[in-house]
Amino acid sequence: MKTILLAGGAGYIGSHTAVELLNSGYNVVVVDNYANSCPESIKRVEKITGKKVALYEADVKDKSKLEKIFSENKIDAVIHFAGLKAVGESVKMPVEYYRNNIDTTLSLLETMKKFNVGNIIFSSSATVYGEDNKVPYTEEMKRGTCTNPYGWTKVMMEQILEDTAKANPDMSVILLRYFNPIGAHESGMIGEDPQGIPNNLMPYVAQVAVGRRDHLTIYGNDYPTPDGTCRRDYIHVVDLAKGHVKAIDYVFTTKGVEIFNLGTGTPYSVTEIVTTFERVNNMKLKYEYGPRRQGDLPESYANADKAYRLLGWKTEKTLEDMCKDLWRWQSNNPNGYKK
Ligand code: NAD
Ligand code: UFG
Fold this sequence. Notes:
With about 350 residues, this protein is of the alpha/beta class. The chain has helices at about 10-25, 40-50, 65-70, 85-90, 95-115, 150-165, 200-210, 235-250, 270-280, 305-310, 320-330; strands at about 5, 25-30, 55, 75-80, 120-125, 170-180, 180, 215-220, 230, 235, 255-260, 270, 285-290, 300. Helix 3 (about 65-70) runs parallel beside helix 5 and helix 9 (about 270-280) crosses helix 11 (about 320-330). Uridine-5'-diphosphate-4-deoxy-4-fluoro-alpha-D-galactose binds next to helix 7 and strand 8.
């Protein structure tokens, strides 16, 4: 049985991926410093799956801690989720973002080399397509110009991983470019639990629905889109997690670098999201239209053909599923993982 190390695995996408890996017969080791998560998510992963996770509290920048983990477990592949991800915060704290996101990557690569582990999957983002490319994005497009330090860390980490693979032909590196992950596991036991005021649309919608926020502001309704609000490629987090299992199966069969978009290929507008959430959950949300948010693109969506062609992966869940599952998680856990 192969063992996968999830760096940053207690977070939103990592915890959902842990469930799917365990259900597919992989062993899972998680390392997280709980900068944006808590150990409760992994307890719940164990409840959902009935399987144990080896859980380590450590900073992924800290090589001595990583070496202990690699010597106590025979790691076959790494999935690197560990990173800071708030776009607005990264503009205010660029040095912290570059330090954390790039150093975690370098420490992982150095430790992998020491322990002769050559397989890594990296959590990249559609943000690397930048402002210059045209939708739908395809993997061979050049990385574009980002509007914030968070995005640049993803561009730089992709470059670091590509250079490392070039210098080490036995390595297998997969860059997964996520579009907009939303929703939650259908059990309602794990989900997204942002600290403070959510930056992203869906956690904000869920907190308005549960009464933690008064109303949603929709940022701009004068974009060149069918209803004037921005369009994004929202993907159910369980579909995304299953994409990681396919990528893990694949990473053991190849060498070099492979890039995959993980999205549905279908964009929805902010207004469509809000009205779908209201309809499927049978409620009204208080919202108003406000000015545009700086740095937002009118449209971002994937061409997801390559992941289907090479990984045999495509999304299965609908926007209705995403909205229902998000509400199940939020209504069961109004304060997230806090009691
Ligand atoms: P998350 O914040 O829930 O998970 C990231 C995890 O990494 C957290 O548990 C955090 O505590 C941990 N972490 C951060 N720095 C660490 C460090 N130095 N040492 C150990 N652990 C550390 O975020 P997520 O939504 O699950 O995202 C996972 C990855 O996917 C991130 O790299 C993110 O940038 C990327 N991504 C997310 C989205 C999205 O919309 N959620 C989109 C594209 C890419
Ligand atoms: N939005 C609102 N009101 C809110 C929050 C968001 O109208 O309170 C709108 C935004 O203006 C945007 C859409 O909802 O039009 C989606 O915004 P999100 O912040 O949820 O997502 P983004 O597409 O801006 O960003 C996400 C991730 C980034 C990643 C990017 C591209 O948060 O990390 O996708 O992959 F870089």
